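Submission sheet (multi-component)
Chains listed below:
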Amino acid sequence: MRKTASTIAALTLLGGLLAACSNDKNNASGSPSASEASDPSSAASASNSEPKLSGKIVFATNRTDKADSTIRDLADEFEKLHPGTSVEIEGITDGNTLKTRAAANELPDVGIPIPDLPLEKMPDYYLPQDDLGFSADTISFYDYNKVDGKVYGIPISAGYQGIVYNKKAFAEAGITTAPKTLDEMLADSEKLKEKGIIALATSYKDGWPVGYYTATLPMEMAGDPDWYGKLADSDTLYNEDNYSIAVLDFLTQMNDKGYLEPDLMSANWENQKRLHAQGKLAMAYLGTWYPSQLADNGANIEDIGMFPFPGIKTISGGPDGSLFISKNTENPDLAKAFVKYCIENGRFAIATGSIPSDKNAQPPAYVTELLSSGLPVITSSPTSSKIQDIINKGNINMTGNLQEYIVSKKDKQAGLIAKWNKQFQDAKK
Amino acid sequence: MNKALQLKKRGSMKRENTERVVLGTLFLFVPLAFLIVFSYYPAVRLFQLSFSDWDGLSNNFHYVGFDNYKSVARDETVMHAFRNTLAYVAMMFVQLAIALYVAVVLDSKIRAKNFFRSVIALPFILNGAAVVYLFTLLYDYQASPINFLLQKIGLDPIHFLPNSYALNLSLAFMGLWKGLGLGVIIFLGSLQSIPRDLYEAAEIDGASYFQAIRYISIPNITRIIELQLFLGITGSLQAYGESLITFPTGGPGGIADTLMTRTLSIAFKYSQFGRAAAMGVMLMILILLVVGVQRMLLRRNEASE
Amino acid sequence: MKSANKSFGLRENAAVKVLNYTVLILLTIMVLFPLYFAFVISFKTNQEYLNTSPISLPHNFLNFDNYLFLFKNANLPRAFGNTMLFVVTSVVGSVLMGSMVAFALARLNLKYSKYIMLLFIIPMFIPGLTTQVSVFNIISSMHLYNTIYAGIVLYLAADIVQIYLFTQFIEKVPRELDESARMEGASYFRVYWNIIVPQLVPAFATVAILRVVGIYNDLLTPYLYMPKSSLKTVTTALMSFATDRGTQWNMMTAGIVTIMIPTILLYLFLQRFIIAGLTDGAVK
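Outcome: structure written.
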């Protein structure tokens, strides 16, 4: 899940390194296995008419925190419903290891997808799942993993971005309504500061939590799902038109006024959740997956609410994890039955404290609150290789840039922007 | 000596030679195979990739000559990471100096010698990642028990991870904490192997404590000092765990990047494996250079003494 | 070496003495303080941790809840089994290979033994992390990826460097011993097995301990080459538990303490061996 997993972060880098090796074998071993599983639909229809299932599958989940508890319980119930079957749970702390496993034909039968896998490559590794009986009417973001008319991964939960706030902290500072503009947010932050409450969390040291400010927030402000991809056609990475500088300046202002964590260099995710749950910290710009983690840290879930970031045009939303079935699975029927079981009635989402993708399931109050703003929901387009190549070539680190910018002196900031834009332009050549 | 006996001896010599060679080959074969497969082949491959534009994902790559080396040499962030890494090297020197001092003290008449030795040596067997985790707690501005104590006695809490170069020293200190004991043990072992009569003679000659250390202890353990320096330099130039666990993204503006974390992110994050390989090769050359210079300096010192 | 334990008797003055003790005591505090801290927190309930000072003793030292939770959730029995397997194969393998190489190079008077020794030393200069890509290629082309053999093979390969240590030890075995055995007509293999190996027992102990500590603390190999949860080792099992509980320092410290305890116990009981072994190995 989105937790620091710091050692793992270290290993992530290595995992990626090793993923490199995937290529050699990809083509050699990928194609024959493709023909083996050439007709998955017939297999699946067989499963529908003949529910007798058997065999063993491996289910890989990134929710290692629940892998041995609620997810295990879910699998146990499934096994009870289908005697003779066995579901082995595997906790994946770092999705990048899946790249290496894909290369070695070792993908788990059911699980989260290979990270950064371009849409058009999904059929190389996964089975289509159109025959499970779900549709866009019943599942949120159902079409997200659709290639050539076939769905390769069904969203297991839905996620929306917004400001997660602690109602107790707001009440203590006398804030009754959520801020609608950036100025209101600054004013509310001042009130919180006066009460000794940290207004906005960044988990600055860990880096990734501020990553949402580099792509998601400007996209929400621009109301354009292609915001990120369009950077490739822009002359500058940071400019006034694409809201990137506005975001940087806003955070700088928040920091200068003392509304962020007092010591940014040790502001970390673990601490943030603790303080946020206790109400010693009021707001954090994150996804709907976050409140349940506050509850795990002792917060009363009724005290947690969400509202859109002030001044945005659209709310970013999308699948929060999808389940994929490996092409090489030996038990496609069982795998499909298990996926269906997890998604129906939002079983898996509920077991892990996230928002069910099943539209029949009742979403938690904070989601309703966030969406009640009436802003349209947009889903960011899949990353284009064009912008990714530029980022890679220039070693552009937007999160690192943001970290550097917001603690820099005013007179230095313009120089930083110029430097980064030059870096961007050089990479485009 | 009669002929028959001579012949017999020659025959047995021959047999002995074959026996030696056969047994030697047998004994060396498997370890050498391991060595070639898991050490030399990967190194050669690293060298090969360093001249390529391999992105780590595609099936093929092109050779690009020295482009990777040139771009690494020109890369500001790499220089930055190098400067940061020097903090680890500096801390390593401090560590060795303290270790040598403690070893000398423990080698003299002192109470509770075994207790001090055991305690100070303890951290080296501890799990490295667990140690870094522990320090993230100690360094946390708010949660740190050190700051708690400081405030208790009316002092200001410390920013253990300041937004400046000093941060790298804080990170490098974790290595000192963990590694100090091993240094002490090794120095102590070598000090204790110095014949005691040398000291007795010195005492009769009226040498002071410091003179004895300067003229007997230190010169007798130069080889060990050299070994420790070698291990310390290679280790500290490759430091990465402390930085990566504490600042997974390298910190603002790469403030906590080391040569190794920079290499890893160039490879993984930006898919420039060829460039990362070039950095790996350059790091290897750097280590060899430093070790070479160190040997030369120490040799000269020895000669002059 | 036997006389080594005597300290030399030069008298230093009182000020120096005071300074020496002060430094030793400070270093002792520096080492013990973080450990003490982890230890006390691991016995606190979450509420207790949040509401009491970070250095106070727990209300109840018998509160093993954090540890119980850990053992229930981290699937330790299997992890201990895997770790034991790696330790045993690696220790046996490294002891055999190390002593064989050392014997071949030090006693068989082979033609190129100097150069072969150099071959074993050079890899110490290669930055290990950057070559992992190729190592992975090898493991995966041997079809060892995500099997227990990946760990077995890699831990055996890792031992090569320690051959250096064995050559140091073997030099100390008097040559007269094997020469007289040769005179009596023993084969070289017999010399190795009956003369050298028994003499190397202290070295075996040292290498064994170093291997145990090395494997026990290794995170990379199991994580990179054996991601399957059934192949977890104690360290990876505990570390992933600890990261999952990262929000709760009391759980986290319980994880940290549990990881540390086996090596600390090993250290306490085998300290003499460890220290003697390390110094013997290092001192030429």
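Remark: Residues 2-41 of chain C form one domain.
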